[in-house]
Design brief:
Length: 656
C-alpha cells in the first residue's frame, strides 16, 4: 500500500537523531501534496520537498537541536507525516554543539550533587551575566551549590587542581570582584533562605537567618518593613552576602538609625579555604567536627568577615538582628543649592539634628530608559517639571531632591514633609516655595491624582516614583548596561566636590538643559547621591566587637558622595562623565583624609594612594594576619581582596 509506505516511520537504532518536520502543506489538496512528495524523491519539481520548508528553517532546527548535543551527533530532519528525508547534518557543522569534556577537573566537580556548567552549556551565559555588563570574564566552569557540603567539595577540588575561584551572591556590583576569567565560578543563588526567628542571641529578641544568595527584594517581601526594620541594600537586586560582607550602608536612614548592616550580624555559617565547614560568632570559630578556635586579634574571623569577608571565606548564612519597629519612609522635598556655599551649609545643617537623616539625590535618565507603565510617563515628565521650576523661580540651577527620614525611635512608617521642610527653612536652607506656579510645574508628576499643597503633592509623587524605580530596578536584565561609579566618604567638608556638583557641564546643577549634556555622551542613566552621615544608633554587639571597615573619628558627622552612570556597552564615551569628575575630585583631595565604601571600586587616578587603607584604614595589618591564618594559600583572591597588589584594578580606568 503506497499510502502506508509513505506514512511509515523509520526507527533508527544508530546515534543519529531524528527531528520531525512540524508541518506539511496538504492544504492544496491530496494530489498537490503528493506531487510535492514525489518531487522529494526526485520524480517531480527538484529541490527540497515542499513539506521540508526552507533551507533556513532546516538549519535552524539543527542548530537548536545540536546546541544541547555532542558534536559527534547527527541531526536528521524528516517530514512529520510522510517520513520523507529533508536533511542530515553533523552537529559539528552546526552553529553550536557540546564538545565532550575530557577534563579531570570537570569530572571531579561532577562528583558533587550540584549543577556544573561548561562554556558549551546553553545556561552558561545566563548564569555568567552579572548586573554590570563591563564584567566580561569567562569562567572555566560555573557551579551552583545548594549546601555547605557542595561548597566544601568545590573548594577542595579547586585546590586539588590549582584552579582559581570566584564567588557571586546577588551579582549587583559596580565592581567585577565576583567573577574571574578561567575560574570555577560559584553562583550562590540557591542559598536563599529567609527565616525569622525569636532568639535570645539577638539584643532585640528577634533575628533572621538570611542565605547569602538571597536578594534584598525577597527579604523585604518576607520580612515586612511595615512592621520590622533593618539595614538593607538600597537596590532590591543587591545580594545579602555582598552587602553584609562589604559593611552594608543604607543611605535612606537605617544606617543613621542603626549603623552598618554588618554591625547587625550575630553569627555566620561559612566554608573555609580548605573546605572546612564552620560557624563563626564573636568569640570563636567552631568546626562541624567539634574543633574550636577561640578568637585572638590575629585570627578573629568574626572581625574580618564583617567588612573584608570576600577575602577570607565563603559565608553561606547570616543570623541578622531585626528591630521591632517599622522602617520609616522618607519625606521627599525640593531645595535650591545655588552655589558651593549652599552645599557646605547643608552639611552643617545635617549635623545639627538628631531627628532627621538627609540624603540628596539627583537623577538624569534618557527617554525610554524606564519601562514600567506607571513609571515611564512620570520619568518623562520629571525633566520638564525641573526645567519649569528653574525658569519660573528665576534660577540658574536645577532644584535638588532632598530625602529626609525621621530616625527617632517610634517615628512610624512615614516622615511628614511639612515639618521636615520647616526644619530646613528655619535653618537657612532655601526650599522650593509652596505657591501656585510651583504647584502647577509639578502637577504632571502626580498625574492629577494627588491634590493639596506643593510639599504634599511632590512628596507623594516622588515616593511613588521611588517605589516604582525600586521595582523596576529589581527586574533589570543582567548584562544589559555597563556601569561606572565613583565614591568618596568621611569627608568633613564639601569643598572637594561642591564646585563640580554645581558647575560640571554634564551633571552639574547649573547645566542649561536637564537631559542634553549627559545624553550627548551616550549615558542612559546617571545619578548623584550625597549621604550626610550622622548616625544615632549602634548595635550592642558591634560596640564591643567592631567591624573591620575603616573607622574615622569624623565619619559619623561627615558626607559621602557617589556618582554612577549606566550606559549601553557600545557607548563607552559615557565613562568620561565619571572619570573626568573622579580626576578633578582626586586632585582636590590630595593630602586630605577620606575613605571609600568597599562595594564601590577604588579606581583612584593617583598612583600614590593605598586603596586598601581607603577601605579598611588602620585595620589592614590585623586583617592581613587574619588572612594568613585562615587562607594562607590565598584561595579567596580578587581585584579588591587583601592580597591583591594591582593598583590599576578598575573596570574603566581613567586615561589622562
Amino acid at each position: 500500500d503506497l499510502s502506508a509506505a509513505i506514512m511509515a516511520v523509520r526507527i533508527s537504532v544508530t546515534t543519529t537523531a531524528l527531528i520531525l518536520c512540524l508541518s506539511c502543506n496538504l492544504a492544496s489538496g491530496f494530489f498537490g501534496g503528493f506531487g510535492g512528495f514525489f518531487g522529494g524523491f526526485g520524480g517531480f519539481g527538484g529541490g527540497l520537498p515542499r513539506c521540508c520548508g526552507s533551507q533556513q528553517s532546516l538549519d535552524n532546527k539543527c542548530n537548536q537541536y545540536c546546541s544541547t548535543r555532542s558534536c559527534e551527533t547527527k541531526c536528521e530532519v524528516r517530514c512529520r507525516f510522510t517520513n520523507i528525508h529533508c536533511q542530515t547534518k553533523q552537529c559539528s557543522n552546526a552553529k553550536s554543539c557540546v564538545t565532550p569534556i575530557n577534563d579531570p577537573l570537570y569530572d571531579t566537580l561532577n562528583q558533587g550533587s550540584f549543577t556544573v556548567l561548561s562554556r558549551n552549556d546553553p545556561e552558561y551565559e545566563e548564569k555568567r551575566k552579572v548586573f554590570n555588563a563591563a564584567c566580561t570574564a569567562q569562567p572555566l566552569y560555573i557551579v551552583l551549590p545548594s549546601t555547605a557540603e557542595d561548597v566544601s567539595h568545590i573548594l577542595k577540588t579547586a585546590a586539588q587542581f590549582n584552579t582559581p575561584i570566584s564567588v557571586r551572591s546577588g551579582g549587583h556590583s559596580y565592581t567585577c570582584n565576583g567573577i574571574k576569567q578561567d575560574a570555577i565560578h560559584l553562583v550562590m543563588t540557591n542559598f536563599n533562605e529567609i527565616e525569622k526567628v525569636n532568639t535570645p542571641e539577638s539584643e532585640t529578641g528577634v533575628a533572621a537567618w538570611l542565605g547569602t544568595g538571597a536578594i534584598w527584594g525577597d527579604v523585604l517581601r518576607t520580612l515586612d518593613p511595615e512592621h520590622i526594620s533593618y539595614p538593607h541594600g538600597q537596590c532590591r537586586s543587591v545580594g545579602v552576602g555582598g552587602f553584609l560582607l562589604g559593611g552594608g550602608v543604607n543611605w535612606l536612614g537605617t544606617y543613621n538609625k542603626y549603623g552598618y548592616g554588618a554591625e547587625g550580624i550575630i553569627k555566620m555559617k561559612a566554608v573555609l579555604a580548605d573546605g572546612s565547614i564552620v560557624t563563626v560568632d564573636k568569640d570563636k570559630t567552631v568546626y562541624n567536627d567539634g574543633r574550636v578556635v577561640n578568637h585572638t586579634p590575629d585570627n578573629n574571623l568574626f572581625f574580618g568577615l564583617r567588612g573584608a569577608g570576600s577575602s577570607l571565606a565563603i559565608v553561606t548564612d547570616f543570623l541578622y538582628i531585626l528591630h521591632n519597629e517599622p522602617e520609616t519612609r522618607p519625606a521627599i522635598l525640593l531645595a535650591w543649592l545655588d552655589d558651593e556655599a549652599d552645599v557646605e551649609h547643608f552639611l552643617q545643617v545635617s549635623r545639627s539634628t538628631t531627628k532627621y537623616s538627609f540624603m540628596i539625590n539627583h537623577q538624569i535618565s534618557a527617554d525610554g530608559f524606564w519601562k514600567r507603565p506607571t513609571l515611564a510617563p512620570l520619568m518623562r515628565a520629571f525633566p520638564l517639571a525641573m526645567q519649569a521650576l528653574k525658569v519660573t523661580n528665576g534660577k540658574l540651577a536645577f532644584p535638588v531632591v532632598v530625602m529626609a527620614t525621621d530616625i527617632t525611635l517610634g517615628a512610624g512608617t512615614t516622615t511628614s514633609p511639612v515639618p521636615a521642610a520647616q526644619f530646613l527653612r528655619d535653618n537657612g536652607v532655601e526650599i522650593v516655595l509652596d505657591n501656585f506656579l510651583n504647584t502647577m510645574a509639578i502637577q504632571a508628576l502626580s498625574g492629577g491624582a494627588v491634590t493639596g499643597g506643593f510639599y504634599f503633592i511632590f512628596d507623594r509623587a516622588a515616593n511613588l516614583l521611588y517605589e516604582e524605580i525600586e521595582k523596576e530596578q529589581e527586574s533589570w536584565e543582567p548584562g544589559k548596561y555597563s556601569s561606572i561609579s565613583l565614591n568618596y566618604g568621611s569627608l568633613t567638608s564639601t569643598q572637594p566636590f561642591a564646585g563640580n556638583f554645581i558647575h560640571d557641564s554634564y551633571t552639574g546643577m547649573k547645566r542649561t538643559l536637564f537631559l542634553q549634556p549627559v545624553i550627548s555622551k551616550g549615558c542612559s542613566f546617571c545619578f548623584w547621591m550625597m549621604h550626610f552621615r550622622h548616625r544615632q544608633g549602634q548595635t550592642d554587639i558591634s560596640k564591643t566587637n567592631p567591624i573591620s571597615t575603616r573607622r574615622d573619628e569624623q565619619q559619623d558627622s561627615s558626607v559621602e558622595i557617589n556618582l554612577t552612570c549606566m550606559f549601553d556597552p557600545a557607548n563607552t564615551q559615557c565613562t568620561e562623565v565619571v572619570n573626568e569628575m573622579r580626576a578633578k575630585i582626586d586632585n582636590k583631595l590630595s593630602g586630605q583624609t577620606y575613605s571609600k565604601y568597599y562595594n564601590f571600586p577604588s579606581c583612584s587616578t593617583k598612583t600614590d594612594i593605598d586603596w586598601k587603607k581607603l577601605y579598611w584604614g588602620d585595620n589592614v595589618s590585623q586583617l592581613m594576619s587574619i588572612k594568613q591564618y585562615w587562607d594562607p594559600t590565598d584561595m579567596f583572591h580578587h581585584c579588591q581582596s587583601l592580597n591583591n597588589h594591582d593598583q590599576t584594578c578598575c573596570p574603566f580606568p581613567h586615561t589622562a
